[in-house]
Design goal:
The protein has about 375 residues and is α/β, with parallel strands linked by helices. The protein has eleven helices and nine strands. It folds into two domains: about 10-250, Aspartate Aminotransferase, domain 2, CATH 3.40.640; about 255-380, Aspartate Aminotransferase, domain 1 (Alpha-Beta Complex). InterPro entries: DegT/StrS_aminotransferase, PyrdxlP-dep_Trfase, PyrdxlP-dep_Trfase_major, PyrdxlP-dep_Trfase_small.
Length: about 375
């Protein structure tokens, strides 16, 4: 059997950064400050500075990073929060936690991000029904490319809605040189190990502009604490980032800008090598991408994946069943006319190996396998 190349090679990055990682971890062990230590505060400041945000706040994971601003914004029962269906569960599951109602909208066929026209239609539907208040939008930067924030922000402003950027996959991406916090009220980050900026466990962060919102998030993430220890101003949750993870992330953040360049080079090589064989991803004008995944479209996904697997090339599918088609989410509203683009792409997308260290022989194996598959299909 042909050996599989790595889909995401965390080991190669670890080996590059090993000495710095070992020193950072040892420093935390020596300090004994394991929860919200000084490395956490440094990480918060650096994450905010990297994205041009006034305030950064670390938390336990990327899911909490989305619910914390919802709580701080007062989103709750009777509120509608608009979110794509073509995304990971965390983008939507946090909405019912607040007793608000998710309303699912369609995505753009090129970027796979929230379609502003579908969003408009969904808002009009909710307003016409009169049962819910249009309160917030959670736009997802799927596969590492930013959503159309200028258009979405204009819609939010028109209707007095808050805007959250779920940048779990897209922290580091820009549009016309600006990060999504330029338009969003909050930018949320996941440090799950497979993310472009990942730790060695769970971790997350929120970037915000408003000091009052930041103060509320600080309270909510530590059990709703008040001004004094063991004084509780509200019902909160336990969402503190371990200092060990912050120390690891600081080392990785030092290399992050360079790794984004390497990911773009890998994406460029794929675009050149795969053109004409599959539908390759396209960026919006003025956009950069973190390439959290390199996702193509094919006609027969099962056959494609089987063919590549036999040649030692792993693939992954994000996300085969849209959220609005899953049992827990089926009762929630969907934009008028359904979600036709979502239903189409969920059967066609497949992601190829992508990480900052993929190059040379491994990437060429991927390209040759895809090209061979396309040639055999064309000849059949």
């Amino acid at each position: 059997m042909t050996d599989m190349i790595p889909f995401i090679d965390l080991g190669a990055q670890r080996d590059r950064l090993r000495s710095k990682l070992d020193a950072a971890i040892a420093g935390v062990l020596d300090s004994g400050a394991f929860i919200l230590g000084p490395q956490v505060r440094e990480l918060e400041a650096r994450l905010a500075d990297f994205a041009g945000a006034p305030i950064g706040l670390a938390c336990a994971n990327g899911t909490d990073a989305i619910v914390l601003p919802l709580l701080a914004m007062g989103i709750g029962k009777g509120d509608a929060v608009f979110v794509p269906s073509f995304t990971f569960a965390s983008s939507a599951e946090v909405i019912p936690w607040t007793r608000a109602t998710p309303v699912f909208v369609d995505v753009d066929p090129v970027t796979y991000n929230m379609d502003p026209e579908s969003l408009k239609a969904a808002i009009d539907m909710v307003k016409a029904e009169g049962k819910l208040r249009s309160a917030a939008v959670i736009a997802v930067d799927l596969f590492g490319q930013m959503a159309d924030y200028p258009a979405i922000k204009a819609i939010c402003d028109e209707h007095g809605m808050k805007l959250i950027s779920d940048a779990a996959q897209g922290y580091g991406a820009t549009l016309n040189g600006k990060h999504s916090i330029e338009w969003a009220d909050a930018l949320t980050i996941s440090f799950y190990p497979a993310k472009p900026l990942g730790c060695y466990g769970d971790g997350g962060a929120v970037l915000v502009k408003d000091q009052h919102i930041a103060d509320l998030i600080k309270s909510y993430r530590v059990h709703g604490e008040g001004k004094e220890r063991y004084e509780y101003a509200r019902i909160g949750l336990n969402s503190r980032l371990d200092t060990l993870q912050a120390a690891i992330l600081l080392v990785k953040l030092d290399a992050f800008a360079e790794e984004l360049v390497l990911r773009q080079k890998a994406a460029d090589a794929y675009e050149k090598g795969l053109k004409g064989a599959v539908k390759t991803p396209q960026l919006a004008p003025g956009a950069t991408c973190t390439w959290a995944q390199y996702t193509v479209e094919v006609d027969d996904r099962d056959a494609f994946r089987s063919y590549l697997s036999a040649r030692g090339v792993p693939t992954a599918v994000y996300y085969p069943i849209p959220l609005h088609m899953q049992t827990p989410y089926a009762p929630f509203p969907v934009a008028p006319g359904g979600l036709p683009v979502t239903m189409k792409v969920c059967d066609r997308v497949v992601s190829l190996p992508m990480h900052a260290d993929i190059r040379g022989e491994d990437q060429q194996r991927v390209i040759e396998a895809v090209q061979a598959y396309a040639a055999e299909r064309a000849a059949a």
